[in-house]
Write a structure and sequence with these properties.
CATH topology of the largest domain: Glycerol uptake facilitator protein
Number of helices: 15
Radius of gyration: 23 Å
Distance between the termini: 56 Å
Structural class: mainly alpha
Strand order of the largest sheet: 1-2
CATH class of the largest domain: Mainly Alpha
Shape: elongated
Helix content: 55-70%
Strand content: under 5%
Number of domains: 2
CATH architecture of the largest domain: Up-down Bundle
Largest sheet: 2 strands, antiparallel
Amino acid sequence: MNIDPSSLAGRARIHAALGDPARLAIVDALTLGDASPGEIAHTLDMPTNLVAHHVKVLTDAGLVAKGRSEGDRRRTYLRLRPEALPEVLDDRHDRPPQQGITLGENRLMTIALRRRLLAEFIGTALLVTAVVGSGIMATSLSPADVGLQLLENSTATAFALGALILVFGPVSGAHFNPVVSAADWLLGRRGGTGLTVRDLAGYTVAQVLGAIAGSVLANLMFALTAVDFSHKDRAAGHLWLGEVVATAGLILLIFALARSGRAQVAPAAVGAYIGAAYWFTSSTSFANPAVTIGRAFTDTFAGIAPTSVPGFVLARLVGLTVGVGLLAALYPDAGSAADQVVVPTDEDASIGHRP
């Protein structure tokens, strides 16, 4: 009798992969139809990072394949490979109908890119409006106390950021920041999660335009010239270092929360971090290239001279590199949670579905 060693090795991998009850539960769920990792986590009441680990084992064993939603290429979906596991699929006809949606339906239900870009545009615009507007109000209320002005500005920014993440997160993930979007794309490439290149380009443009619009809106609300380029020079090495620290910390925080299954606390955590970083960094923690560009359009408390913008943007790129490096060391599989950044999008809410 001739036995194919490669066939035996493949069967051994399959049996080993199915030896864990959690992985067996995932396979069982996928026999009902294709699903996203988030749907699997919700159905099985399992942390997203644990789902990502088990899915990798099942994928390596050839039991599960990954695909992208065709509508916007944003979401990752899992499907069982019937040719790898015929004995599990033989009884599918005895199973109850799926109480969810198939991959084909998911493609129709995914949030269109234009809606996500609109959310990023409005969210970033309102964030910059909060930063610039609170700075203008602070200098008006406390003209002789710069420390109090910064306290007022940082408090308003922290609360506004948390609220905006809650509002727009279910639609776009609430990045509001090209560096966060770039990290999402960069870390998600290997796992087939996160933003695509097309998404990244769209998010970046929407965020920059939104930041400019937000600055103009704040100027107009306080009866100032709509566009008044700042003369506040912020070009200095110690300020750039502050931006590296602020940006790296922000990236580490956001992806650590997503990777550990705690993305639901991101609105409070990210708002608190930015509010605190106003005080512990020399640059008052811009940590956002889009916001920096927007702040160049106002000659007020929060402004930055256009000539100082390139240095700050380059510092953010360094911070991005440092942050991704720290994530690789501390959370090697952080990219598996890129779909959950900054908070998971809510596809049901996007189509008006109510459970």
